[in-house]
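>> received
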Amino acid sequence: MDGPQGPAPLMGFSHVSLSVRDRDRSERWYCDVLGFETFEHLDEGDYREAILLHRASGTILCVQQHHANEGEEFDPRRTGGDHVAFRVGRRADLGAWKRRLEDLGVTHSDVADREYGSVLCFKDPDRIQLELFYRDDHP
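>> returned
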């Protein structure tokens, strides 16, 4: 509700929603690889959606399979999203995640230490780029 200074401040992200080719495959992948759990399924007229919850972080991720999807893979060069990055608490956590991805057969980059932080990149079944990110002074 608007107050004397304008609308109420944002409270953070509510959720991130990704368009996928196969809702059920993506749902299993995000649960198995990143530890999400299924919160709810929706079957709307134009799409099927799984709403996933990561309890430890409070992150909500939705994977939507639109009936009009023609089966094309994700391409970050098109207008829209580029990648989704999940924050980890320590630089050493990236090494542990790298080993987990290897154990699960998920192709990934090496851990890269950059000026802006440390990052480990990998892709979901639709080739959407995901990152695990650490920065000492992360806001």
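>> The chain has two helices and eight strands.
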